Amino acid sequence: MRLHGDGGSESFMDASKFTIGVLASGRGTNLQAIINAIETGVVTAQIGVVISDKKDAKALERAKEHNLPTFSVDPKTYPDRAAYDASIVRVLTEHQVQLVICAGYMRLVTHPILEAFQNQIINIHPSLLPAFPGLHAQRQALAYGAKISGCTIHFVDAEVDHGPIISQVSVPILEGDTEESLTNRILIEEHRLLPRVIQSYVEGKLSVEGRKVFQNGTP
Ligand code: GRF
């Protein structure tokens, strides 16, 4: 068995509530922002499952601290990417997930997931896309000499950091900024923006036409 349910309880799940699944590979501060927003009523949904490709991810610890079901799925134990992603779909579906959040998930989301969750997968990226996609976006922005960066939340498509943009927030890049200081400035905005976008989705306010995302009819 390649899937490891490593804790948490499903007994708290409420079948009547909108259910989110979170994919995370690392420290999980965005997951924490979602958890906090749910606990304070800013987001009217529940987290059905948190899945990580790294069994030691801090994100899994955070989930367990809040009694959320967790799964670690080791990509190396699958013959190919499609089989790995199919197993992720299975876990998400079993937990009745209606919206998938990639919150620091360091893998490409491929066909099985994209097909099962069309326009239901959201990613957060620490730059103003289409500038600086991929890894180390903050380092890229500093190296380029950009004066403004920020974060982008977008629907996920088959290309890296590419799908229709839902929302963006800018931050200044200041003289003397390091990768760490810029990262922290952007993270503050990520943690504010992500719950807001999730709640818009939960309330059915988002619609997509081609590359354009409308919130209540407004791009
Ligand atoms: C964030 O900067 C997010 O934009 C990017 O990965 C980082 C994840 O941070 N995709 P965390 O694991 O949520 O703390």
Describe this structure in words.
- The chain is an alpha/beta fold and 219 residues long.
- The protein folds into 2 domains: 1-6 and 17-118, 3-Layer(aba) Sandwich (Rossmann fold); 124-219, 3-Layer(aba) Sandwich (Rossmann fold), CATH 3.40.50.170.
- 32% of the residues lie in helices and 24% in strands.
- The strands form 2 sheets. It has an 8-stranded mixed sheet with strand order 1-4-3-2-5-6-7-8, with helices on both faces.
- The chain is globular.
- Residues 24, 26-30, 103-104, 124-126, 151, 187, 190 line the site of 5-O-phosphono-beta-D-ribofuranosylamine.
CATH superfamily of the largest domain: Formyl transferase, N-terminal domain
Helicity level, as a percent range?
25-40%
Report the mean per-residue pLDDT as an integer. 94
How many individual domains?
Answer: 2
Strand order of the largest sheet: 1-4-3-2-5-6-7-8
- Total of helices: 6
N- to C-terminal distance: 45 Å
Return Rg in Å.
Answer: 17 Å
Structure keywords:
Rossmann fold; binds 5-O-phosphono-beta-D-ribofuranosylamine; 10 strands; 32% helix; eight-stranded mixed sheet; two-stranded antiparallel sheet
Layout: helices, strands, pairs:
Layout: E1 3-5, E2 19-23, H1 29-39, E3 46-52, H2 58-65, E4 70-73, H3 81-94, E5 99-102, H4 111-116, E6 121-125, H5 137-144, E7 148-155, E8 165-172, H6 179-202, E9 206-209, E10 212-215
Helix pairs in contact: 1-6
The structure holds 5-O-phosphono-beta-D-ribofuranosylamine.
Please give a quick description of this structure.
By secondary structure, this protein is an alpha/beta fold. The protein contains 6 helices and 10 strands; from the N terminus they run ββαβαβαβαβαββαββ. Helix 1 links the parallel strand 2 and strand 3 (46-52).
